[in-house]
């Protein structure tokens, strides 16, 4: 009935009909203009004058790339839900880079429809898919502050890109900067950086979240990235990650600072082989200075090892926050050179106050496992339970109140032992009860008779919210150095009910052997 009335009304009003048709066409046009689109990008195959909407007619540049000077790609305004697919194995050089998502006004996605710079693993050059490559050719790029990727806008995904050839020429800068809300920086491989002889020797970072401008990174995440300086000629200036709301499942190695800054959730990361800056600055492995927002810090399921420098702090949850509550659990820390005062899990410092709950950590240290803080006043309180501490001292109380909640085990380092004792050394075997760095999971129990097995307190009552991970499988990041990807491995979870837990990060009786390494791998030399 309603449609009949409208039809009759329009039939006798031809002028109105014309207006109605014009409005329909206009609205349809607007709808098409704002509809999400997939565009394909190839430096070797594409042209910015193509339509970019198929693999056979790709653009050469992503909108916002510095090297995009003319053509449809350079005038296009990204819309929520757009995907920009980069050709696998293709290379963009310094003249093409970097990328600015706010060239003249910001291009924002939405929480349900982010804008993605990503890949299609069925579209690539060569015999198999590899990441697209951004090769800076020993330059910094051309964006403000020397950043290469400038994610100032909201709800972007930057995914699966290899970035190499970054060179610091002056002060510190960052390769990938995210300033907007809800951005995801994921699955990238960053390596091969250097600095000129006259540049400062610190304060660059591979990835950072700017917490003081833009949307301040609210709701953003940095995950599953590999930051590996093992092929870089200069290890004394590049840090791993600076600030982040949620930072998880990353491999960070051969940098002078692993993680530094504010964060709410730091878990499942592998941080190893840190180096000290020639300026003497830090050499932190994991250094949360404060929480990004609120009052709670989560630091769990991380492996932190092989620190290559003997100065400053090792791992410190540190905040000038009177209401801080920090949960540090299921972390494994070992084979780290002695630090000044503490090379274990720190609690407080720099006038911080707060409560720290350290559960089921495995810490091998030449000084102490927990504590730190600053004299003379006691500012922080550390509550530790079910921790396996292999060190001369369990908890140093300078500036920190140490409360033993029970279930902890201390094993002193023998006079003839280093930090990685072998089972063939009688003195070491007695002290470490066969716990070694060479075990499949470092310092995990290898037999049901080991002293950590069944000797801890049952903490099932705590396992809710973020602390649910305390009871679940303990997952850790490992590094596939052939494909430069993060591989997560899981150990057996804690028993439910009232059964006793093991002490330390590992529960005995692993669920079978660890996953087999991938087979039929082909090394790709770039």
Describe it.
Among the domains are: 31 residues; 233 residues, no CATH class. The protein is elongated and about 70 Å long. The N terminus and C terminus are likely disordered. Strand 1, helix 3 and strand 2 form a beta-alpha-beta unit. The protein is built from four helices and 39 strands. The strands form five sheets. A 13-stranded parallel β-sheet has the order 1-2-5-8-11-15-18-21-24-27-30-33-36, with no helix packed on it. Strands 3, 6, 9, 12, 13, 16, 19, 22, 25, 28, 31, 34 and 37 form a 13-stranded parallel β-sheet that branches.
Q: Give the DSSP E fraction (strand runs of 2 or more residues).
A: 25-35%
Radius of gyration: 27 Å
What is the 3D form?
elongated
Number of strands: 39
Helix content: under 10%
| Helix run count | 4
Strand line-up in the sheet with most strands: 1-2-5-8-11-15-18-21-24-27-30-33-36
Q: How many angstroms separate the termini?
A: 69 Å
Fill in the keyword field for this structure:
13-stranded parallel β-sheet; mainly beta; 4 helices; disordered N terminus; 526 residues; 39 strands; single chain; 32% strand
What's the short version?
It is built from four helices and 39 strands.
Topology:
Blueprint lengths: L1 H10 L2 H21 L3 E4 L30 H4 L7 E6 L2 E2 L6 E2 L14 E10 L8 E7 L9 E3 L4 E4 L2 E7 L5 E5 L5 E3 L2 E3 L2 E2 L8 E6 L11 E3 L2 E3 L9 E5 L3 E3 L2 E3 L3 E6 L2 E3 L2 E3 L13 E5 L5 E5 L2 E3 L9 E3 L6 E6 L2 E3 L10 E3 L6 E6 L2 E3 L3 E4 L8 E6 L2 E3 L2 E4 L3 E7 L2 E2 L15 H7 L42 E6 L4 E6 L36
Parallel strand pairs: 1-2, 2-5, 3-6, 4-7, 5-8, 6-9, 7-10, 8-11, 9-12, 9-13, 10-14, 11-15, 12-16, 14-17, 15-18, 16-19, 17-20, 18-21, 19-22, 20-23, 21-24, 22-25, 24-27, 25-28, 26-29, 27-30, 28-31, 29-32, 30-33, 31-34, 32-35, 33-36, 34-37
Antiparallel strand pairs: 38-39
